[in-house]
């Protein structure tokens, strides 16, 4: 369920960053239209991620798709370190691509978990997703934008490496 942390942090990021951008706390000065685009880009690119996820889940497996899903968000928030409007758009687009992979986690749980606990595991993952907003929101008033990006990148990288230690879905192997 910890895989849901980067997904939730992305939602917390936008709630934390809008007040910073509107109050000119950062060297990046965006108008309301630009803030709107930065906010909307993940939703626009989520579909791209979902299409990619569908093909990767069937070709490289569910586990490997989850590993791949951590790459765009890590790269995206690293790019946002450049602190430009373009970097924000690219970073948020990559974050949206990662969010398109969320259904793969439910698919993976459905294939590996006993049916008596599947619902609870998916519930826990949704709780983790929602609660991962909280640390971002709690620390954001006290840190810089660049530090916030680093806080979001670190769990993505850690989770990506931890995913190498979980098994692939037997259902995927049977399909192959």
Automatic annotation (TrEMBL):
Chief place of localization: membrane
Membrane spanning residue stretches: 35-53, 65-83, 89-109, 121-142, 148-166
Entry keyword Transmembrane helix: yes
A single MF term (Gene Ontology): transmembrane transporter activity
Compartments it resides in: Membrane
Organism: Bracon brevicornis
Protein name as annotated: Major facilitator superfamily (MFS) profile domain-containing protein
Keyword Translocase assigned: no
Gene Ontology cellular component list: membrane
Lineage: Eukaryota, Metazoa, Ecdysozoa, Arthropoda, Hexapoda
Pfam families per UniProt: MFS_1
Membrane topology category: Multi-pass membrane protein
PANTHER family assigned to the protein according to its UniProt record, in alphabetical order: GH07001P-RELATED, PTHR48021
Keywords of the record: Membrane, Transmembrane, Transmembrane helix
